[in-house]
């Protein structure tokens, strides 16, 4: 198994590389531009995992030049390489238990663009394509300023370190640790899976529970306040039964809690 990871410094790529090193899996890490200029190496690898994107793809209407997924698909079309796309739960409507067969209802530019890139890439690669629609990821926040968007963890720690926590009694979402995502990716590669899979915990996690776990080691005096309308307050979960039928994987809330406590200890040490 020989892998190419595109997006050298992205949140997912950084954590995925740590996991692959631990498992002694051979990989090469490249930026998107370097990958597109090194077509001579394609024959030496089996899979490309695209963890890269750009701000125009996230914020603006669709343009092919901003679509890394489809451009990679075109580049590897006539090779043995297979492609893994990291898509988003935002392609679905905001609801409980979204399934892969549900109607796509993207609302923001990023989710609209991802739904387009999914279709275009599939048209090019067919069964050489694996699409992962991922729920909110939990992992160590990046320290550099080259983030395309802030995660739930980014937002939480930025406020908690100032002594502010928002009250989220009625809001639930679906979460997954980035380490668990890495494990799932490797298992799917080993069985040469293709098609679309939801990757998630698959159950409601109320934000007040997440906040309690992430704030566990914070000794600063905290002031609770209500959320304002600028925050994303949609409730959702992803149905992960298709994934569970495909691979044997343990995904439970106790592991998520444990990951949150580790993060809390590191952030507030």
Features:
globular, 269 residues, alpha/beta, single chain, 10 helices, 6-stranded parallel beta sheet, two-stranded parallel sheet
Sum this structure up briefly.
This protein has 269 residues and is α/β, with parallel strands linked by helices. It contains 10 helices and 12 strands.
Let me know the largest β-sheet: 6 strands, parallel
Number of helices: 10
- Global mean pLDDT: 90
Query: What general form does the structure show?
Result: globular
What is the percent of helical residues? 25-40%
Beta fraction: 15-25%
Strand order of the largest sheet: 2-1-3-4-5-10
Low-confidence stretches: none
Could you walk me through the main structural features you see in this protein, from its secondary elements to its overall organization?
With 269 residues, the chain is α/β, with parallel strands linked by helices. Helix content is 37%, strand content 19%. The chain has ten helices and twelve strands. It has helices spanning 11-22, 32-36, 55-59, 68-76, 109-125, 152-160, 178-190, 207-214, 241-246, 253-267, and strands at 2-6, 26-30, 47-50, 82-88, 129-134, 136-138, 164-167, 172-173, 175-177, 195-199, 205-206, 223-226. The strands form four sheets. The chain has a six-stranded parallel β-sheet with strand order 2-1-3-4-5-10, sandwiched between helices. It has a two-stranded parallel ribbon with strand order 6-9. It has a two-stranded parallel sheet with strand order 7-12. Strand 1, helix 1 and strand 2 (26-30) form a beta-alpha-beta unit. Helix 4 (68-76) runs parallel beside helix 5. The longest helix is centred in the middle third of the chain and has 17 residues, at 109-125. The protein is globular. The N and C termini lie far apart (38 Å). The model has no long low-confidence stretch (mean pLDDT 90).
């Amino acid at each position: 198994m020989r892998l190419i990871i595109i997006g050298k410094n992205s949140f997912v790529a950084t954590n995925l590389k740590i996991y692959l090193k631990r498992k002694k899996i051979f990989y090469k890490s490249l930026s998107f531009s370097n990958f597109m200029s090194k077509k001579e190496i394609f024959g030496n690898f089996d899979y490309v995992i695209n963890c890269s994107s750009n701000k125009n793809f996230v914020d603006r209407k669709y343009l092919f030049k901003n679509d890394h997924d489809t451009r990679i698909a075109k580049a590897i079309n006539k090779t043995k390489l297979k492609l893994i796309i990291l898509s988003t739960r935002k392609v679905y409507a905001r609801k409980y238990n979204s399934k892969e067969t549900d109607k796509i209802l993207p609302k923001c530019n990023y989710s609209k663009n991802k739904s387009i890139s999914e279709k275009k890439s599939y048209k090019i690669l067919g069964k050489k394509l694996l699409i992962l629609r991922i729920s909110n990821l939990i992992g160590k926040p990046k320290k550099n300023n080259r983030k395309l968007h802030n995660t739930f963890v980014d937002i939480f720690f930025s406020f908690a370190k100032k002594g502010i926590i928002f009250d989220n009694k009625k809001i639930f979402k679906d979460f997954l640790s980035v380490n668990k995502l890495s494990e799932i990716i490797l298992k799917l590669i080993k069985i040469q899976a293709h098609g679309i899979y939801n990757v998630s915990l698959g159950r409601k996690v109320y934000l007040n529970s997440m906040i309690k776990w992430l704030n566990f080691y914070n000794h600063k005096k905290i002031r609770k306040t209500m959320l304002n309308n600028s925050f994303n307050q949609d409730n959702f979960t992803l149905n992960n039964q298709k994934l569970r039928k495909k691979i044997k994987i343990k995904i439970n809330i106790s592991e998520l809690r444990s990951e949150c406590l580790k993060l809390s200890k590191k952030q507030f040490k």
